[in-house]
Amino acid sequence: MNTARRALIILTTVLMGAIVGAWTSGTVAAATRSAQDTATLYIVQGLPGAAIDVAVDGQGVADDVQTAKVVGPFDVSPGMRTITFTDGAGKVVAENTVDAKAGSSSDLVLHLTAVAGDPPVVTQFANDLTGVPSDKASVTVAHTAAVPPADIRVEGKVLFANVANGESLNLVVPVGTYSVDIVPAGENTPIVFGPVSLTVQGGSLNRVYAVGDPAESTMNVAVHVIALPESGSEQPTTVDTGTGGAAVLIQMVARLLNMWRG
């Protein structure tokens, strides 16, 4: 191999290393900037027997959202954001202004209160995106049903005690399928909801919302699953392309390889 070709190979190797380094650092930096510059919102429709339209700051984002359905993610600018829920006739069912912090993720739940006859409310629940091992699941159970404080039992044992409307509790549990029911706080009967079989997904945040009204036989459960990084570190979500940066280096390498082959 002559000296010229040897030099081209060495230069190509160096440039390829630069490409990898530039692409990796640029992609991670872009993903970090994106996460820091926006807030992520999910909408959980916990109002029984209704199809609901959703708007953020007056801009429609979802139509005809049925009971127990989750829609999103919606990326919004950080700050105070007004979430409006309307019915099919355009009547405002509920509205709330929430704090969408930069880099945050939240579930916004439309649901009944524990007081009969009160209008529906919108409760913001922050999503804890801390990673968990693939054989474990982060489970957050929220009370958003029209019942007084309640105990949530798993396999017949109280796992979440005295949970009031609008509150939630979190545990990390082994992956599996669990029998879940809800009873009044400190009581064994009546069973307000369930038992139902709940399968939790490993390496994920499993958000479970009890919704509806037992007096109207509309109790239901809404489930929202968000995949988590196993290590707990934030993963890049975008790949940048174009004519600058790494793209220029790639073009240079291509030219050098063509020269070497020629």
What is the chain-wise order of helices and strands?
Answer: HEEEEEEEEEEEEEEEEH
Work out the number of β strands.
16
Taking all residues together, what is the mean pLDDT? 81
- The side-by-side strand order for the widest beta sheet comes to 4-1-7-8
Please bin the fraction of helical residues: 10-25%
Low-confidence stretches: 7-33, 232-261
Strand fraction: over 45%
**Radius of gyration, in angstroms, nearest whole number:** 25 Å
Distance between the termini: 14 Å
Q: Count of DSSP helices?
A: 2
Q: What characteristic shape results from the CA principal axes?
A: globular
Helix/strand/pairing class, anyone? alpha+beta
Biggest sheet details: 4 strands, mixed
| Quaternary structure of the protein | single chain
Short recap of the structure:
The protein is α+β, with helices and mostly antiparallel strands. The chain has two helices and 16 strands.
Structure overview:
The protein has 262 residues and is of the alpha+beta class. The chain has 2 domains: 1-32; 39-227, no CATH class. Helices cover 19% and strands 45% of the residues. The chain has helices spanning 3-37, 246-261, and strands at 39-45, 52-56, 59-65, 70-76, 79-86, 92-100, 105-111, 121-126, 136-145, 150-154, 157-163, 168-174, 176-184, 193-200, 204-212, 220-227. Strands 4-1-7-8 form a 4-stranded mixed beta sheet. Strand 13 and strand 14 (193-200) form a beta hairpin. Helix 1 (3-37) packs antiparallel against helix 2 (246-261). The protein is globular, with a radius of gyration of 25 Å.
